[in-house]
Amino acid sequence: MSTPLVHLHVEDRIATLTITRPKALNALNTAVINALHKHVVDLDGRDDVRVVLLTGEGEKSFVAGADIAEFATHNQQEGQALAQRGQDLLFTRIANAKKIYIAAINGFALGGGLELALSCHVRVASDNAKMGLPETSLGVIPGYGGTQRLAQCIGKGRAMDMMLSAKMIDAETALAWGLVNAVSTQDELMAEAKSRAKGYLRNSGDAQAAVIRAVNAGLDHKGGYDTEIVEFGKRFTSKEFVEGTEAFLDKRRPSF
Ligand code: DAK
């Protein structure tokens, strides 16, 4: 089953979910988040699927972030509610899914896009991929678990530098830092992801689900995610946030 914004293909117990908004570099708007949520819930209930590959359409972008045009208009309560809703509906749900999720990062993975990849259990990237959490350049902060999961994945020092500088890193650096598990050419990316998925199929799905639960139980102390949600909501009262998002939409540098 497919929606127009997310395509689903299932073969040999491996599902592929492809976000299909390439003209907006697969930016996550509410409709895409809702469509992904529905697929994640459906896939969790399917006995014929063990591994899910998550990717974006096109050769340029996995997901270039949350849709800036959409989130620029929220107030504090709406921003906080949306961060909570997004974490509950999609990001935390993928992290705690019954299936193994592999992000196949085929280009830009920025902001909410990198947060989506970080929610997955494993990441592979094409050699043209660029990754970053550039939220502070817009006057906002990551709101979909990024402050927690990036630090858990690559360590506090590197994660702090990425978020404070808002800079992107390339695929080679991401591999060296453990942000991705493998890098391949763009042409071979899905084959690399499938080969990993097939390797996982050799082992016990019940045991793998238990590993995911145990790892998450240790890492999710909740306080960090809740703090992120509150702080994210507060950004919507900030003039710098208005300036940051308006500047992006006006295609100019923000003045902070
Ligand atoms: N949102 C909306 N549209 C986007 C977009 C985005 N994140 N990223 C790209 N696009 C659109 C561009 O506006 C452009 O549209 P048109 O002008 O053609 O209509 C089209 O995609 C192609 O982009 P560019 O022309 O900019 O392509 P370039 O190759 O020149 O540049 C780029 C590629 C990825 C470097 C650039 O597009 C870029 O800087 N994109 C924005 C990256 C970014 O800052 N992403 C957002 C990070 S902040 C929330 C929770 C979490 C968050 C937000 C809200 N709530 C709970 C409410 C998270 C926030 C973020 O993700």
List the helices and strands and how they pair.
Elements: E1 6-11, E2 14-19, H1 30-44, E3 51-56, E4 61-63, H2 68-71, H3 76-95, E5 100-105, E6 108-110, H4 112-119, E7 122-126, E8 130-132, H5 146-154, H6 156-165, E9 169-170, H7 171-176, E10 182-184, H8 189-201, H9 205-219, H10 223-234, H11 239-250
Condensed summary:
This protein is α/β, with parallel strands linked by helices. Helices cover 48% and strands 17% of the residues.
Percent range of helical residues: 40-55%
Bound molecules: 4-(N,N-dimethylamino)cinnamoyl-COA
| E-strand count | 10
Mean pLDDT: 94
Sheet with the most strands: spatial strand order: 1-2-3-5-7-10
- The SS-based structural class is alpha/beta
Specify the CATH homologous superfamily: 2-enoyl-CoA Hydratase, Chain A, domain 1
**Which geometry do the CA atoms define?**
globular
* Assembly category: single chain
Beta-strand level of the residues, as a percent range?
15-25%
Q: Secondary-structure element order, as H and E?
A: EEHEEHHEEHEEHHEHEHHHH
CATH topology value: 2-enoyl-CoA Hydratase, Chain A, domain 1
How many alpha or pi helices? 11
List keywords for this structure.
single chain; alpha/beta; 2-enoyl-CoA Hydratase, Chain A, domain 1; 6-stranded mixed β-sheet; 4-stranded mixed β-sheet; binds 4-(N,N-dimethylamino)cinnamoyl-COA
Task: Describe the overall structure.
- With 256 residues, the chain is α/β, with parallel strands linked by helices.
- The chain has one domain: 2-enoyl-CoA Hydratase, Chain A, domain 1 (Alpha-Beta Complex), CATH 3.90.226.
- The protein is 48% helix and 17% strand.
- The protein is built from 11 helices and 10 strands.
- A 6-stranded mixed β-sheet has the order 1-2-3-5-7-10, sandwiched between helices. The protein has a 4-stranded mixed β-sheet with strand order 4-6-8-9.
- β2 (14-19), α1 and β3 form a beta-alpha-beta unit.
- The longest helix has 20 residues, at 76-95.
- It is globular.
- The mean pLDDT is 94.
- 4-(N,N-dimethylamino)cinnamoyl-COA binds at residues 24-25, 27, 64-69, 71, 74, 79, 82-83, 86, 108, 110-112, 134-135, 138, 140, 143-144.
